[in-house]
């Protein structure tokens, strides 16, 4: 795809990246999953709220997060 066989990889960090993974892969060679950002945005958390207050809610094993990661991988 890129010059001299360079692969173009997209960061999958927001839920829409995983939901529309097949469409994005028409333009990119693969994904690198940014699980911290993906988790925050999927669970409605933000960096400004103080992660120490939200640490109990921040769980990359949450079913919604793992479903999006699986969806991106399967694309």
From TrEMBL:
Q: Which residues form the PEP-utilising enzyme C-terminal domain?
A: 4-74
Q: Record's InterPro entries?
A: PEP_synth (IPR006319), PEP_util_C (IPR000121), PEP_util_CS (IPR023151), Pyrv/PenolPyrv_kinase-like_dom (IPR015813), Pyrv_kinase-like_dom_sf (IPR040442)
Q: Does the keyword Nucleotide-binding apply?
A: yes
Membrane-spanning parts = none
Q: In which domain of life is the source organism classified? A: Eukaryota
Pfam families, A to Z: PEP-utilizers_C (PF02896)
Q: Which GO terms describe its molecular function?
A: ATP binding; pyruvate, water dikinase activity
> Would the keyword Isomerase turn up in this protein's UniProt record?
no
Question: Which keywords label this protein?
Answer: ATP-binding, Nucleotide-binding
Matching Gene3D superfamilies: Phosphoenolpyruvate-binding domains
- Family per record: Belongs to the PEP-utilizing enzyme family.
This protein is called PEP-utilising enzyme C-terminal domain-containing protein
């Amino acid at each position: 795809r890129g010059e001299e066989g360079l692969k173009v990889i997209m960061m999958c960090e927001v839920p829409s990246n995983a939901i529309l993974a097949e469409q994005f892969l028409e333009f990119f060679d693969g994904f690198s999953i940014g699980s911290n950002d993906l988790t925050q945005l999927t669970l409605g958390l933000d960096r400004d709220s103080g992660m120490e207050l939200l640490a109990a809610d921040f769980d990359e094993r949450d079913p919604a997060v793992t479903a999006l990661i699986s969806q991106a991988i399967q694309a």
